[in-house]
Sequence to fold (445 residues):
Amino acid sequence: MRDLLAIPVILLAVVLQSSIVSRIPLLSGNADLPLVILAAWALQEGVETAWHWAVSAGLMIGFVSGIPMFVPLAAYLLVVIMARLLQRRVWQAPLLAMFGITFIGTLFLHIFSFVALRLNGAALPIVNTLGLLTLPSILLNMLLAIPVYAIMRDLAHWMYPAAEFE
Amino acid sequence: MRNNFSRALQTTIIFLVVGGVIALALGGYFSSASNVFTGSLVNLQTWLSSRFIAVQEFLTAPRDVASLRQRNAELEAEVSELQAQVIQLQQRVGETEILAALVDFSRANPDNTYKAAEVIGRDPSPFLHYVIINRGSNDGILRGMPVVTDQGLVGRVDAVIADAARVQLITDPASNVNVRLENAQTDASLVGSVTGDLELELIPQETNVEAGDLVLTSGLGGGYPPDLIVGQVVNIRARDFDLFQQATVQPVVDFNRLQIILVIVNFTPVDIGPLFPTP
Fold:
């Protein structure tokens, strides 16, 4: 049952991402709601289903987007790996960990996207990509990180009651 | 008998006295005294009236405030509802204007068959310039079909599912459209960029290109039908040591405000890939 929660939540996130978040650009970049949700979910103590969430999000984004499917899949799995590693080390400052993972996760997602599209022949100057896409996207993801973390913490407490955290 | 007489006399005398006093008063003989009296009376009545009104207001005010608040809430709700209706109607008017323009465009270009579709989303990745439309293979949409608006070329269908399709915009970094410059009578290649700007490449050095030149699809390569308007040349970069000139193109379509588009469903793109020798 808990594993299945990933599907509606990620589906909703992908729909919101495509219909709303992608239409609110900063320069040429925009926020990545599924990535931020994944980072926030994977950082919650007691959560064991983050891997399912990453795979679901990667497949759904890969299906909707024109970007090669392995790009979001690899980036989201990397986000979960980092979050699980950081969760035990920076447990006293979860927001700091959230910001760190959001920053690095966005960076890796953009690096993967950049490499994949360059290999496919797209003209992507690295300076423009960094200045107009990656940095604004990181900023937007950081702004999104705080409310999303609060929502996912509540969701995690609801799905995994306090007794299971102990 | 005597008593009755004396009582009637008393009454008559009293009436006469009172009548006399009234007559004297009306004649103005008691004006100063009557002024004092009536003034006091008026003052008393004014005071009583004002106190009564104050008490009445005190007693009835809470009920009025409550009813006014209720009425205010009702009116506010009504205003909100009307504002929502106004917004909906404005949206309808906007859609109708767009559809009317598209109908005019399709009438002006009767050679093509169009299928109108609504833009329902954008690509989640900021690297790509794609939009998602609410028409798919169930509506006869196929991969490679060109997409236009009444203003000009938008892109082409990149992927299709039953009820939706993904359209690659000409501003996408991976997009490449063969175009011709109307005034210069030369062909060139139009490529998108990560910022959404359009660049003209492969313009021969000897070609005289000027700002304002109209850019149309050439139809070469079989990817797009010919003579679809793309945009206008904004500025040209010609350097002696380059093989080709370059130019920036201002698209005629506002890609940030795409709402309804037309898919040209009777155009079959030609795949010329097999014609190129593989290494």
In short: Chain A has one domain: 3-165. The interface with chain B takes residues 14-15, 17-19, 21-23, 25, 28-30, 32, 34, 61, 64-67, 72, 110, 113-114, 117, 120-125, 128-129, 132-133, 137 of chain A (CB under 8 Å). The radius of gyration of chain A is 15 Å. Chain A has a mean pLDDT of 86.
